[in-house]
Amino acid sequence: MTDAGSKNHMPLHSNSPSAAQLVAAVADTLMQHGWMLATAESCTGGLIAGYCTDLAGSSQWFERGFVTYSNEAKHDMLGVDNAILTKHGAVSEPTAQAMALGALRHSRAQVSIAVTGVAGPTGGSKDKPVGTVWFAWGVPSDTGPTLGAETAWVKTERMQFSGDRAAVRQATIAHALQTLLQLLKAST
Fold first, then answer.
1. Given a cut of 70, is residue 15 above it in pLDDT?
2. Is residue 47 within 8 Å of residue 40, measured between CB atoms?
3. Would you say 55 and 27 are in contact if contact means Cβ atoms under 8 Å apart?
4. N or C terminus: fewer CB in 10 A for the chain?
């Protein structure tokens, strides 16, 4: 049991579940299916994986996390095509989708979360201001014997968060976990 000062007990948004509550619900749903989760993170730098592995027993449902902050890491670790990165940039829908599929291809997981964005305070542009985050979730679209990247359905979404770097990252974590939970519940 964690103490009351643990980061998992701090709400990510007012009037929303804490990270610990979201992770516990995600864990329960993944275990019901016998599925594993992999994360591919850029702007959150591994924080989603950290929240997941704060839960005791997470090895039953959390397979691995990729922290791919640089374009080279996205390419080397997840197989994101350099042409995608050159044409669309790291903070884009095609990159997020490729990260989610790459996390499935380079792991034994059946479910993935990918996030790439501009947490700030610098790095923003007119087209991609600070607070811009692209998400992708890879979930099984088939319950056959070969679950993974080849049979995954990928949902992508762009969000614009406000606040400082910490606020953008916390909002990203909350949205990633809340949406994953919704997608998993919809697949049951």
1. no
2. no
3. yes
4. N
Partner residues linked to 158 by β-bridges: 134
Apex CA 109: angle with CA 19 and CA 172, to 5°? Answer: 30
Global model pTM greater than 0.70: yes
CATH number 3.90.950.20 is the correct assignment for the domain at 18-186: yes
Q: What is the 3-state secondary structure (H, E, C) of 147-175?
A: CCHHHEEEEEEEEECCCCHHHHHHHHHHH
Residue 145: asked if its preceding bond is cis (omega within 30°), the reply is no
Q: How far apart are CA 65 and CA 106, in angstroms?
A: 10
Tell me the per-residue pLDDT of 105-136, one tens digit each, with 9 for 90 and over: 999 999 999 999 999 999 999 999 999 999 99
Q: Would you put residue 141 in left (φ > 0), alpha (ψ -120 to 50) or beta?
A: alpha
Is-contact 166 148, C-beta < 8 A?
A: no
